[in-house]
């Protein structure tokens, strides 16, 4: 093909593909078939390869991804990307409305859906997308252009050759998360908990191919410089952005006047919410007149002309089929609700903890009740209440059990305590839970010895007490013959078991499962006592004199290390070759980590919070879950919570992802 001919064909194909993208992804109104689209795209790709002089960063071929970056560059926002103050009920909306009226502002608002995703700032020069950034801390974001380019509803070229900044939300459709999690389940990967984290994780990929596969989408809702375009109201701004080619939620956005109309909008949206193909977590109410917005101004954190009404956590009804009891490693008995499976916030719920007898009595639950379920903190399912009006009379009373469901021994409940305990130290349930705990990630971290395998090994009699784990190598042949365990996985498992012998003492101390000794206390103790003999030879007073160790913990520790069976266990593990010393300080030290207290908030792209916490601890740092004056450093990822604000308030050192990553990379 001749050059000129190629040029005009390239232009034509780009035009057709851009139109098709727009019709399909922005207007949700496909005009050509998938086959036609693919064939145009392939033809364009070939022509661009043959005639690289006509390549363009805004060609629709750039939407498939492929660009890989080595780190996220920081971008300072010209206009800060503020968030909105949250309100939770109508009274707070009325307060907002009254403040508006008091300022002599006309109470005309635009109500919009609050999309559950992450905000993005898009920059166009002469009508072409030049870069896209995350919100970050509102002042500085990260350059995510390579990934945003792959989002089909983001135009690479808009309908006017102007310089403009546009803001909106990147989100993951509900269905995409479902499909992604199905796949992750099959691959044995941890499931993504909600659309927001999934979208944030996808946009923080260095390789844009991965982001492209995640099928992200956008809703555009904010024009930072409306006066540059002679725009007078937010409604006009939305219309203007839509005309430019952006995906604006026309069927959802609505101009309303006064409090009754806001209320009506909330009611209608609440009813529609579960049928939407994307998650919304509330409603945004914005003063419509831009002149009035200017007059109202900003606080240090928020605009005074808008609020976000947050929905109460989603509740779904289902039947409480049964209440069953499980036995933990300390012998504690937990009642659990067995539910007819229901989908709550995108995942299926079949079980929910009912904590203890008092909890079930307090909630007045009967078997057969219709109950409402919600996810506390978006993740853990919780039974909210039984629906009294749905009772038929055939429901069965809840009765607390008196005997251990596994070994049958009589349960005990100590005075003033809510929990029942199985006191039988040889109860199989307690023993297998204790073994699972010993191998768990924060304890001896034996990869491959999870709940199911351990239960198998326990039931087969291969592992009934901790030292048996280290004797598993003698059963190698039997293990390989077991269904589901190949030679390779058995080899890996045995290697992980051998490796665990070299762990620093805090892991063993936590793994022993001494009542009240969590991983952090275990670390505190081994830092002081250094080896297991010092722990065994300590008195009650020695333990009690330690800051952060109260009388109960001191007693538990003293009793544990003076029990003949426990002493025998430790001696046996010593014989086997399990390390009995604290290795931390000798092995690992880092000037920026050792001796400091860290708090982690937000999502990190290169690691998860638990692993980073482990790493910091292994270098002599400490982590805690809340920010206080004692905190030395707050590590802030994407979408940080209120801990970040608190850190700024208290003037605590803040490390962003780039900083912590560079430290971790050089460890
Ligand atoms: S307006 C200055 N409109 O909610 C106003 N935000 O807490 C900027 N969000 O950071 C925001 N849907 O990520 C606005 N229709 C909507 C929104 C929306 C979701 C997010 C956004 C923002 C946060 C505010």
| Parts with pLDDT < 50 across at least 5 consecutive residues | none
- Beginning-to-end CA distance, first to last residue: 55 Å
The overall pLDDT, averaged over residues, is 91
Helix count from the secondary structure assignment: 26
**What small molecules are bound in this structure?**
2-(butylsulfanyl)adenosine
Could you tell me the number of beta strands?
Answer: 22
Q: What structural category do the secondary elements indicate? A: alpha+beta
| Biggest β-sheet strands, sense, barrel | 5 strands, mixed
| % residues in beta strands | 15-25%
Please provide a written account of the structure:
With 667 residues, the chain is of the alpha+beta class. 38% of the residues lie in helices and 19% in strands. It is built from 26 helices and 22 strands. The strands form six sheets. The chain has a five-stranded mixed β-sheet with strand order 2-11-10-3-9. β21, α25 (642-649) and β22 form a beta-alpha-beta unit. The two termini are 55 Å apart.
Strand and helix map with partners:
Elements: H1 3-26, H2 34-50, E1 74-76, E2 86-87, H3 90-102, E3 108-115, E4 118-125, E5 128-134, E6 140-142, H4 145-148, E7 164-171, H5 174-186, H6 195-203, H7 208-213, E8 217-222, H8 234-244, E9 254-257, H9 258-272, E10 280-287, H10 290-296, E11 306-310, E12 316-327, E13 333-344, E14 347-353, H11 357-362, E15 370-376, E16 380-386, E17 411-413, E18 420-422, H12 428-439, H13 451-459, H14 466-470, H15 476-481, H16 487-500, H17 505-511, H18 519-529, H19 532-536, H20 540-544, H21 551-561, H22 564-576, H23 584-587, E19 597-601, H24 609-618, E20 622-623, E21 633-636, H25 642-649, E22 653-656, H26 657-665
Parallel strand pairs: 2-11, 19-20, 19-21, 21-22
Antiparallel strand pairs: 1-6, 3-9, 3-10, 4-5, 4-7, 7-8, 10-11, 12-13, 12-15, 13-14, 15-16, 17-18
The chain binds 2-(butylsulfanyl)adenosine (IVH).
Residues 82-84, 112, 114-115, 119, 135, 169, 221-222, 284, 303, 306, 308 line the site of 2-(butylsulfanyl)adenosine.
């Amino acid at each position: 093909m001749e050059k000129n001919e190629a040029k005009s064909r390239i232009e034509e194909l780009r035009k057709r593909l851009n139109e098709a993208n727009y019709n399909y992804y922005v207007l949700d109104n496909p005009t050509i078939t998938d086959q036609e689209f693919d064939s145009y795209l392939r033809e364009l790709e070939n022509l661009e390869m043959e005639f690289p002089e006509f390549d363009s960063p805004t060609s629709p071929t750039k939407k498939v991804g492929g660009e890989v970056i080595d780190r996220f560059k920081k971008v300072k926002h010209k206009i800060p990307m503020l968030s909105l103050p949250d309100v939770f009920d109508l009274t707070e909306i009325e307060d907002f409305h009254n403040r508006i009226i008091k300022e002599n502002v006309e109470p005309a608002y635009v109500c919009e859906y609050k999309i559950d995703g992450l905000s993005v700032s898009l920059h166009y020069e002469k009508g072409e997308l030049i870069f896209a950034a995350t919100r970050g801390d509102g002042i500085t974001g990260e350059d995510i252009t390579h990934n945003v380019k792959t989002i089909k509803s983001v135009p690479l070229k808009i309908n006017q050759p102007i310089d403009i900044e546009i803001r909106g939300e990147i989100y993951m459709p509900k269905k995409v998360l479902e499909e992604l999690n199905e796949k992750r389940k099959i691959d044995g990967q941890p499931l993504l908990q909600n659309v927001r984290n999934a979208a944030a994780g996808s946009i923080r990929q260095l390789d844009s191919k991965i982001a492209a596969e995640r099928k992200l989408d956008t809703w555009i809702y904010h024009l930072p410089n409306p006066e540059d375009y002679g725009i007078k109201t937010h409604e006009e701004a939305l219309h203007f952005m839509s005309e430019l080619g952006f995906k604006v939620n026309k069927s959802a956005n609505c101009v309303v006047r006064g409090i009754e109309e806001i209320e009506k909008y909330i009611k209608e949206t609440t009813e529609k919410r579960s049928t939407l193909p994307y998650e919304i977590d509330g409603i945004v109410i914005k003063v419509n007149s831009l002149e009035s917005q200017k007059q109202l101004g900003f606080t240090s954190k928020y605009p005074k002309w808008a609020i976000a009404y947050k929905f109460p956590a989603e509740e779904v009804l289902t039947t409480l089929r049964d209440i069953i009891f499980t036995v933990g490693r300390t012998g504690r008995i937990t009642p659990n609700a067995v539910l007819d499976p229901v989908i709550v916030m995108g995942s299926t719920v079949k079980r929910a903890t009912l904590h203890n007898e008092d909890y079930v009595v307090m909630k007045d639950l009967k078997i057969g009740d219709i109950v409402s379920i919600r996810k506390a903190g978006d993740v853990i399912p919780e039974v909210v209440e039984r629906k009294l009006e749905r009772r038929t009379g055939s429901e069965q009373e809840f009765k607390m059990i008196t005997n251990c469901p596994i070994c049958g021994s009589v349960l005990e409940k100590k005075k003033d305590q809510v929990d029942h305990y199985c006191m039988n130290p040889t109860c199989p349930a307690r023993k297998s839970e204790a073994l699972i705990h010993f191998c768990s990630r924060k304890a001896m971290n034996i990869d491959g010895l999870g709940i199911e395998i351990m239960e198998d090994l326990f039931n087969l009699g291969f592992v009934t007490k901790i030292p048996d784990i280290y004797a598993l190598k003698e059963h190698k042949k039997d293990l390989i013959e077991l269904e589901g365990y190949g030679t390779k996985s058995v080899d890996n498992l045995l290697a992980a078991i051998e490796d665990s012998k070299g762990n620093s003492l805090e892991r063993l101390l936590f793994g022993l499962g001494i009542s009240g000794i969590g991983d952090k206390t275990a670390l505190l103790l081994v830092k002081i006592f250094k080896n297991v003999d010092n722990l065994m030879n300590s008195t009650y007073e020695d333990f009690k004199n330690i800051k952060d160790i109260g009388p109960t913990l001191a007693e538990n520790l003293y009793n544990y290390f003076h029990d003949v069976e426990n002493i025998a266990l430790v001696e046996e593990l010593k014989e086997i070759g399990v390390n009995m010393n604290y290795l931390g300080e000798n092995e690992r030290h880092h000037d920026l980590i050792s001796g400091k207290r860290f708090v982690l908030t937000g999502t990190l792209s290169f690691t998860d919070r638990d692993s980073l916490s482990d790493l910091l601890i292994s270098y002599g740092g400490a982590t805690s879950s809340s920010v206080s004056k004692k905190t030395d450093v707050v590590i802030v990822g994407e979408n940080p919570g209120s801990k970040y604000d608190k850190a700024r308030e208290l003037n605590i050192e803040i490390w962003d992802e780039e900083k912590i990553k560079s430290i971790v990379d050089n460890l």
